[in-house]
Amino acid sequence: MQAHSAPLPRTGIGIDTHAFAPESSDGAAQVPLWLAGLLWEGERGLSGHSDGDAVAHAAADALFSAAGVGDLGTHFGTDRPEWKGASGVRLLSEAARIVRAAGFEIGNVAVQFVGNRPKFSPRRAEAEAVLSAAAGAPVSVSATTSDGLGFPGRGEGITAMATALVVAVNP
Ligand SMILES: Nc1ccn([C@@H]2O[C@H](COP(=O)(O)O)[C@@H](O)[C@H]2O)c(=O)n1
Ligand SMILES: C[C@@]1(CO)OP(=O)(O)OP(=O)(O)OC[C@H]1O
């Protein structure tokens, strides 16, 4: 590889998808929705071994990808009972710690999720503040519907995609 006077930044990518959990017969939400580090009162929750926060998981996976230190399953596999029910914020904060321990500083993380609900934009600033605090670096979040198409359009689940930028410190 070509030598550079300063280390070049490294990008990473992460994708995570969770299905909405089944509702009770009277339509009341049984599982709380945690998404982008926030609790969404009255919204149907996502299923998962953890809290199902696809936005936080995609962000964590993008960090691992950028640092080249494996992925979510490497560090928080479903075979590890200690991560059962873990919050997305906890996973993201631990991912950031692992990436820094591997010798990287985090530039930023950008996440977009695809889903009809929750209506995200009114709480964007709140979500970005919570996730940025967890990562110790700026995390931006955007949302889009899929125009009614596919599983997000049918309201079956949410998928999130993230990119991250890290740079080696003292390589
Ligand atoms: N769950 C969502 C989805 C979308 N938004 C906002 O609406 C805008 C338009 O959605 P498109 O599907 O036409 O891209 C989008 O840019 C978001 O600002 C949202 O808040 N919550
Ligand atoms: C986060 C973990 C671990 O609790 O579980 P899930 O909540 O199922 O999430 P997913 O993104 O499907 O996989 C990663 C798992 O390691």
Automatic annotation (TrEMBL):
Protein name (Swiss-Prot/TrEMBL): 2-C-methyl-D-erythritol 2,4-cyclodiphosphate synthase
Its EC number(s): 4.6.1.12
Lineage of the species this protein comes from: Bacteria, Bacillati, Actinomycetota, Actinomycetes, Micrococcales
Sites annotated Transition state stabilizer: H49, T145
CDD domains (alphabetical): MECDP_synthase
Annotated region (Disordered), positions in chain: 1-21
The protein's required cofactors: a divalent metal cation
Domain annotation 2-C-methyl-D-erythritol 2,4-cyclodiphosphate synthase: ranges: 10-166
Free-text cofactor note: Binds 1 divalent metal cation per subunit.
Subunit details: Homotrimer.
Keywords: Isoprene biosynthesis, Lyase, Metal-binding
The keyword Lyase belongs to this UniProt entry's keyword annotation: yes
Gene3D superfamilies linked: 2-C-methyl-D-erythritol 2,4-cyclodiphosphate synthase
Family note: Belongs to the IspF family.
Pathway as given in its UniProt record: Isoprenoid biosynthesis; isopentenyl diphosphate biosynthesis via DXP pathway; isopentenyl diphosphate from 1-deoxy-D-xylulose 5-phosphate: step 4/6
InterPro entries: MECDP_synthase (IPR003526), MECDP_synthase_CS (IPR020555), MECDP_synthase_sf (IPR036571)
Claim: Lyase is one of the keywords in the record: yes
